[in-house]
Amino acid sequence: MFTSDMLAQIESAFEVALKERTPQLLQFVKEPPDSPESRELSWAEQTYARIYSEFTSSGKRLADSLGSSDQRLKTQFAQIDALSARFKKTLPDELFVNNFYVHPIRLEMLANFFRSQTDIYQWIPGSPYERYSYARFTAILEKLEQLILRFGTFRYRYLAPLAVKWMQGQSLKELIAGKLEYEHSQDRTFDTARGVKSVNDSIRDLFENIEKELRYTYVKYMKVYTDVLHAVLIERKMSDEAEKLLPIRLFLEYGAASQTLINLMATGQSRTSALLFKSAHRMRDDLTPSECQGYLDRVNIDRTDLPAICKAEIRRLRRTKA
Fold first, then answer.
1. Both 123 and 242 in a single domain?
2. Cα 125 to the chain's mean position, in Å?
3. In a domain, 111, yes or no
4. What is the number of structural domains in the chain?
5. Taking the CB of residue 236, how many other CB atoms lie within 10 A of it?
6. Domain residue limits at 49
7. Which terminus of the chain has a smaller tally of CB atoms within 10 A, N or C?
8. Residues 284 and 233 placed together within one structural domain of the fold
């Protein structure tokens, strides 16, 4: 049992950054790093983005809002306020609030890029099933690299096709085969002694590519991309195009661009199980959550060739004892 002496006051990472790392934060505001994913300064990126969304964009001052008896701290807060006030925003306030993990200047840079395009349609993400989806998503990920991420690599050339295949709902077996084919095309040799280990490493790498890059980094920054694009489309009086923007972030998160697959996974099914279940029952791509649940509740799984683990998932997720 915990006693009051055993409990310490819990402060958020935001409060700790403000009170204990203020000089470094101030330096970040003066000279933000090229990439928001800087390992050393990711905390400062998120802290300042939150400061801007919660204080500056609403006309408040950090120095007035956070009580402190430390004069040096107040002076540093005032400097952050002054630097923030120089920043001229053009995007709606809610966009900064909804993307409070990215420095506001990066959002404005992306907006200015969209505004400079005579043909903005080429930057509207299409369906992963479209004929030229590889080329379109490669261009989009390249632009994110140039304007926002700035990793200084060409990994988007590999990740864009992988993202498309992932969103199309390709199975892990298909994705692994594609990964091995890609690596062989890069003249990577697998001798007899190292062959199995190399294949296992490639499979492990693929899982990291999906989880750490597609489902984390690019889910986050495709949200930034589509939010800013939506705002610029509204500016251009292209409200229909803005409202029809596809939820690419959601497609990347679930590994599917089918409403039915996403709704099956939302019931609790794994991606693999949802893919097999949908294929086995030839389900339409536009089923609602209730329709997907209905399938799970009433289908006779004993008469299907689904793997035992998939059948166990379905039994667990049923709302009836059909």
1. yes
2. 15
3. no
4. 3
5. 12
6. 13-104
7. N
8. no
- The whole-angstrom separation of Cα 210 and Cα 159 is 9
On the 0-12 / 13-18 / 19+ scale of CB atoms within 10 A, 155 is middle
How far the first Cα of the chain sits from its last, in Å, is: 45
Give Cβ neighbours of residue 25 (< 8 Å, ≥ 6 apart): 17, 18, 44, 47, 48, 76, 80
1 domain-assigned: no
Q: Strand, coil or helix: what is 138?
A: helix
Same domain (yes/no): 125, 235 = yes
Does 57 share its domain with 129? no
User: Per the confidence metrics, is the pTM higher than 0.90?
Assistant: no
**96 and 164 part of one domain:** no
Judgement on whether residues 142 and 248 belong to the same structural domain of the protein: yes
158 & 270 share domain: no
What does the alpha-carbon distance between residue 148 and residue 107 come to, in Å, rounded to a whole number? 8
Rounded Cα distance between 169 and 251, Å, is 9
156 alpha-carbon distance from chain centroid: 15
- Number of other residues whose CB lies within 10 A of the CB of residue 13: 11
What is the residue-level pLDDT of the chain in tens, covering all 322 positions?
444 443 344 457 788 888 788 999 999 988 988 999 988 888 999 999 988 888 876 778 888 776 666 788 888 988 998 988 888 889 999 999 899 889 999 999 999 999 999 999 999 999 999 999 999 999 999 999 999 999 999 999 999 999 999 999 999 999 999 888 888 777 554 454 455 558 888 899 999 999 999 999 999 999 999 999 999 999 999 999 999 999 999 999 999 999 999 999 999 999 999 999 999 989 999 999 999 999 999 988 888 889 999 999 999 999 875 4
